[in-house]
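Morning!

This is the sequence you dropped in the shared folder:
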Amino acid sequence: MEKIQIVRLFAVFVLALTASPSAAGPLDSPGAQKALICSACHGFAGNAPGNHVPILAGMNANYFKKAIKDYAEGKRTSPEMEPYSKYVLQFGLDEIAEYFASQKKPVPFSVKIDPKKLSRGQTLATQCIACHGPKGDGENERVIPALRGQPRGFLEAQMALFGSDKRKLDDAGLEEAKKRIFKGLEGPDFEDLAAYYATLK
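The structure's back. Tokens below.
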């Protein structure tokens, strides 16, 4: 029943976009067509419009694939993501991952943020450079996600999960580094870090 519901939802997206193709851009690849299943939450071409949903456009392909597998296997929990992750696994994980990786990440919304918070976030971010890079771009080969330009609310929520140790990493070295960095961080630190990375262009 779950599979039927997902396929029906996918068909609705296809019909809607076929009727107005200019709304989402070209759908000339299997990856673009299959990725429509993600558009209700993550936006067309992965440009999520909300503050608590990650932007998939420009996401490292290896990290996207790892995240989908983790949701499908229950390593990461989300009532919303569980059925969709299983669909993506069955019908085109590689194609969808490469499609989103090829999309241009949108320019972050211009939001007025206290300069002191941004400055403090930038200082805290020096601890993240070794894995996420100096500009927060992550690393595809090491399956490390980009933080730059992701929604502030989403980043803050994920940092809180890491800080409470509710979200763990498979790689022992990365898990140890995560624990070391997050050991001394708390709520206000997550807010400042998230604000800094969310505004990076």
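Headline: The two ends are 42 Å apart (CA to CA).

More detail when I'm at my desk.
O.
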